[in-house]
Amino acid sequence: MHGEAAVKTIFVVDDEENIRNLLRRYLAREGYRVETFASAEEAQARLREAFPDLLILDIMLPGQDGLEFCRELRRRSTVPVIFLSARGDEVDRVLGLELGGDDYVAKPFSPRELVARVRSVLRRAAGTAPPHKIEAADIEIYPGDRRVLAGGAELSLTRKEYDLLLLFARHPQRTFSREEVLDLVWGFDYFGETRAVDDLVKRVRKKLRAAGSRAQIATVWGVGYRLQC
Which of 33, 43, 50, 188 has the most beta carbons within 10 angstroms of its beta carbon? Predict the structure, then answer.
């Protein structure tokens, strides 16, 4: 039993019972407290009572999938997340990490390797406090209470306007395609037109200008948008 693991609690969210039981055995053997859930909805109910030290999350879940679950989780918590996926799709990996995932393990996997990943992620998490403030140019975002300042003025933003600006502020100078913005702001089950992204960007641009902010959401022709600081 590892000393630093003895007090750590891990939630495992996977619809395959054999995976849940396998991870419970291996993680418990290492001294972790383990709770398992067959769906995102079950885990959400538990999270209303307490958060774990780390969450192992399958992407392909019945009902709400793991990516959408993580997107909602990141609005409330910085708890480390390790994604599991049978698909091994690079798009899943990229989106999972962009949404705030800390690691990604493809199925089938070695339980010993996963335990090693758990240790590594927990060590990293122990050395980094959750960000009190996210800054990009003259934009200041306080995720704890969803406050946004731009040019020193507080912005009044809708939920999606906030999510868009938070996405860009976390990755300044990175260009996001309209499809990526749809996935990361609207959710992976949204099948609307990319015109919605253009309309949202226009609204946020207008509010940034009104606040006198020097930050700009630039159009990258033929690709998408990025925050230009």
Answer: 43
- What mean pLDDT is reported for the chain? 85
Residues 10 and 120 in one domain: yes
State the CATH number of the domain containing residue 114: 3.40.50.2300
- The per-residue pLDDT for 221 is 92
CA distance 114 to 140: 36
Residues 6+ positions from 101 with CB-CB distance below 8 Å: 57, 70, 81, 82, 83
Query: What CATH number is given to the structural domain containing 217?
Result: 1.10.10.10
CA 33, CA 6: separation in Å to the nearest integer?
Answer: 7
pLDDT digits (tens, 9 = 90+) for 164-198: 999 899 888 889 999 888 878 876 545 567 788 99
* One domain, residues 198 and 215: yes
Domain around 149: 134-228
b/e code 80-94 from CB counts within 10 Å (16+ = b): bbbbbbeeeeeebbe
HSE, CB side, 13 Å, CA atoms: give it for residue 31: 9
Q: Please report which helix (H) or strand (E) contains residue 141, including its range.
A: strand 139-142
